[in-house]
């Protein structure tokens, strides 16, 4: 039985996120890192945050080398002022349009 075109796993057209925006907290390690890459590979414009600037900068360089549209900022999401600053940044970057939120930051 032949699979219908456009429904096969891995078909990027079926899963296109072109024009979508995403925020992934805790995006420099583990599952968060994988989510950032997957969303960006599917066409989303992604912003991520992490507490560690060195790790964040290293990830941003790697994603840039892969031509992925990912930006990032340092943020401890347990801090209300830092969360507010993060959302102001995201609002500016995405012109008020956030389609996907992945709250992945651990404690």
Automatic annotation (TrEMBL):
One GO molecular-function entry: tropine dehydrogenase activity
The name this protein goes by in its record: Tropinone reductase I
Entry keyword annotation includes tRNA processing: no
Pfam families linked: adh_short (PF00106)
Domain of life according to the entry: Eukaryota
SUPFAM superfamilies: NAD(P)-binding Rossmann-fold domains
Gene3D superfamilies per UniProt: NAD(P)-binding Rossmann-like Domain (3.40.50.720)
InterPro entries: NAD(P)-bd_dom_sf (IPR036291), SDR_fam (IPR002347), TR (IPR045000)
Enzymatic class: oxidoreductase
Keywords assigned by UniProt, alphabetized: NADP, Oxidoreductase
EC number: 1.1.1.206
